[in-house]
Amino acid sequence: MDSPHQKPLIIHLVSSTDSPEFTLLNRALTRTSVIGLDAEWKPIRNPHKSTFPTVSLLQLACQLRPQLGSDSDESLVFLLDLSLIPLSSIWELLREIFVSPDILKLGFRFKQDLVFLSSTFCSQGCDPGFDKVEPYLDITSINHFLQHKHRGRKTPKDTKSLASICNDLLGISLSKELQCSDWSCRPLTEEQKTYAAIDAHCLLEIFNVFKANLVKEGKTYGTIMELHSSNINLGLKELLQKQDIGDALIRSNFPEALNIVQATVTSEDSHRVANGEKLISMPSTRNTMPMDEVLLNIVRKYGEKILLKASDRKPKSSKKKGKKRSSLVAVCREKQLDGIGDWQGPPPWDLSLGGDGWPKFLCDVMVEGLAKHLRCVGMDAAIPYSKKPEPRELIDQAYKEQRVLLTRDAKLLRHQYLIKNQIYRVKSLLKNEQLLEYNGTLEVYLFCQFALES
């Protein structure tokens, strides 16, 4: 992620609870109200194995509060190496972070990450794992809101990739080449560390764009007064005794007054009032800072939560699907016969050509939805850098990244002489049939079966 205005990203790899990095993490958690979450795991390449992947790395990007003397955009990224840290030693810490009312959690479709993360901790005796993240805000929701506001049209149904959102909102190119790398191998490469840190940190950057837009347009409710750090630990009685604050409270209507009082209580005795409910005590073993008024109102208006059901914790089994698999095999064979003449020779990842043996694809705008399905089964599938790429741009990207270009545009086949065996024309309109259609290698064929089963 390249941006000329950004400071160098500060990355801390946490591999032990006795390390200085872990101590710094605990200190940072008391100084942040917004955290970006992401996780990495090694994809399961056996489509018939009914288990969840084991999460190897958990990323936490913490944006420090400016009241503590830091710059408003200062942030730290912590990479928790779950293959080295005893999971029981951080289980309670993570559970507390996930439900802390003082910390807004950001993620990009983080529910799947939470399912895998919970399974990983349960397998190490930390039962019942994790079942909730609250308050939470998904980056896809932020993008949908900003798109609707700027373009004045209905929110699109298709969910954009994180790379596309970064390009649209931040104007930066987010490389996803290491997404399907082996995250279980140790030590992690410097490239893997940087990739993992950027994936979490960009969530903070996207949220800051969203927050700035809301503040600029006055959509976070009016601010009655500026809460200074000297007022944070004052109770209601002390607040009323201060003339400037007391007058503001008296002149305010009830919801506005609640905003002020709520923003001044400490976390250890914090109370959350929502929809006229009674005050509920939220004890915490961690001395976190309460959200400021702007952030608190964003959470109230746009906040979400992730709740895992019992069905979410069970991997989808391949049992009782023998007939379906048989029919899929038959369809695959028919599609293979139909595709004769469209594909010749080995793909660019073939070992005989110096490739690494791992399939890589580039889905153009006509089959962009197929990329998401391929990623769900562990495939390395990218989309074009721009929204309306020229044929030459697609060809250059496919050639440089050693990908097979998947398209429904027959005109692109004219350029096969430029990238031999790197263009495949998809004939089907339905994504499930598209997955079946392309079976140039055994790995792809197996992943087609697994994707349709799940």
UniProtKB/TrEMBL annotation:
One of its GO terms (biological process) is nucleobase-containing compound metabolic process. SUPFAM superfamilies: Ribonuclease H-like (SSF53098). Gene3D superfamilies: Ribonuclease H-like superfamily/Ribonuclease H. Residues 10-215 form the 3'-5' exonuclease domain. It holds the Pfam family DNA_pol_A_exo1. One of its GO terms (molecular function) is 3'-5' exonuclease activity. InterPro entries: 3'-5'_exonuclease_dom, Exonuclease_MUT-7-like, Mut7-C_RNAse_dom, RNaseH-like_sf, RNaseH_sf. PANTHER family: 3'-5' EXONUCLEASE DOMAIN-CONTAINING PROTEIN (PTHR47765), EXONUCLEASE MUT-7 HOMOLOG (PTHR47765:SF2). This is 3'-5' exonuclease domain-containing protein.
